[in-house]
Structures are given as C-alpha cells and as structure tokens.
Design brief:
There is one protein chain. This protein has 9 helices and 7 strands. The chain is an alpha/beta fold and about 240 residues long. It has a single domain, classed as Rossmann fold (3-Layer(aba) Sandwich), CATH 3.40.50.
C-alpha cells in the first residue's frame, strides 16, 4: 500500500467535501506518473482524443480559455497552439500537478492557478471557452460545477469535455465498470501498490450521470449540446455544449 495515499473511494466520493479532499490527495499521489498513466490506461490514445477535443472548438481569433482540472497542462498547451493570440488559464486543485504543468509549459499566453471547480477563481462572463480532460467526473458537486461554468462563460460560449462515458443501459454500465475496475486496479497495483488509485475511476463513474442525463444536466444550466463523439466502443466520449445567449 502506498505510504502517501490510503483513502478509500467508497468512503469519500459520495460527499462533496470528502470527495474534494480525496481528489486533492489522490492526484498529489498520481502527479509524478500522470503523463504516463493517461497513455497506459488509454492504450496510447489519450493525446489523440484531446487533439480531437481542441480541434472541434469554434474558430475564434483571440478567445479567453479556461481548462479545468488541467493536470500537467496538456490541453492548455493544445489550446495555446490552436489559439496563439488567445489567453489560456489552467486551473487545478493539486499544487503538485500545477508544478509539473508549469515546468512543461513555456508559453507566454498560458498561466496556471490553483482552484476548485466548486468555486472557480474567475470573473463572471470572462471566458469564451471552457475545457476539461477527465474533469467533470471528478467535480465534488457536478451541479455546483455546472453553475460555475455557466457563470464564467460569456453568452454563446463553449464548454467542451473529454471523460469516461456511462451508457444508459445497465448491462453496458456493468461491463464498463468491470473493465475499468480491472484495468485501473492493475495499474494501481503496478505503479502504487494500491488498486484504488486508478480503480477509483470505475467507482466515480458509478455516481456520474449517464450520457442522456449528463446532457439534461447541461440543459438545465442553460446549455445546448453541439456535438458528441465516442471512443473505445463508447467507454469514453467528448462532448461540446454552447451556453445560450
């Protein structure tokens, strides 16, 4: 068992405060291995999915962008490449992630700041594009995070996310949960001597809305679905929503 991380997902992720503490400690443990594990868990496809996410964004000349749960900054750097005259802010709960992101980024139009998705450190209607890779599923309270995204986005602004996806039917959910629990648990044992470190992905998905309910959640917060794309047989997806004027 890791000397650094001993929290149990099932004891923490059903309460917003406990989940935020869990995420902070989990990703502090994961940070040094994060770039490797995103490749390993996705069979090397993670970078391509994130490129697709950013490539599908609307063509804007100088957008102000915020990347939530930015981790080591890969999406933030893609945004900077796509929008060289834009401004990009990466936000993450975990200082260890931000240190790595800062080290790996040498771009004048990218900054990283510490913050929670439950209370984003950004002004109202100040952001044109919000992105996130594996962000929404880790939100301590999804509705509160969607409130925050709606608050910071300009009218007509875009919210685009990559994450694991939950099908509507129970058989599909059970298959996806078993696959993620086994694959994540394997890498948790290999890298941390603790299957919960990545087995947590399956546990968090159990409490996450299915595809239809996720769209409904966004709609209730004033968004319209623009596009959705599935990967790995629907185990993951990218979604793009537009805030109503």
């Amino acid at each position: 068992m890791s000397a650094q991380f001993r929290l149990k997902p099932k004891e923490h992720i059903d309460d917003p405060n406990r989940k935020q503490r869990f995420n902070r400690e989990l990703f502090a443990e994961v940070a040094p291995k994060y770039d490797f594990i995103t490749k390993a868990l996705s069979f090397g496809r993670d970078a391509a999915w994130k490129r697709h996410l950013v490539a599908a964004l609307p063509d804007l000349e100088k957008p102000v962008c915020a990347d939530l749960a930015c981790g080591t900054g890969d999406i933030a750097r893609l945004l900077a490449s796509r929008f060289p005259e834009g401004r990009i802010t990466g936000i993450d709960l975990t200082p260890a992630m931000l240190e790595i992101a800062d080290r790996q980024t040498n771009l004048f139009n990218v900054e990283y700041i510490e913050g929670s998705m439950a209370a984003l450190p950004l002004k109202d209607k100040s952001i044109d594009i919000v992105t996130g890779g594996y962000a929404l599923r880790n939100a301590p309270d999804l509705n509160q995070t969607l409130d925050e995204i709606a608050r910071i986005l300009t009218p007509g602004g875009t919210a685009a996310f990559l994450d694991f996806s939950k099908p509507r039917n129970r058989v599909g959910q059970a298959i996806g949960h078993a696959a993620l629990k086994c694959w994540g648990g394997f890498w948790g044992l290999v890298l941390h001597n603790n299957p919960d470190v990545y087995g947590y992905i399956a546990d968090s998905l159990k409490l996450y809305p299915d595809r239809i309910d996720l769209s409904r959640c966004f709609e209730k917060h004033g968004f319209t679905l623009k596009n959705r794309r599935h990967y790995m047989g629907g185990l993951l997806e990218t979604v793009q929503f537009q805030k109503k004027d």
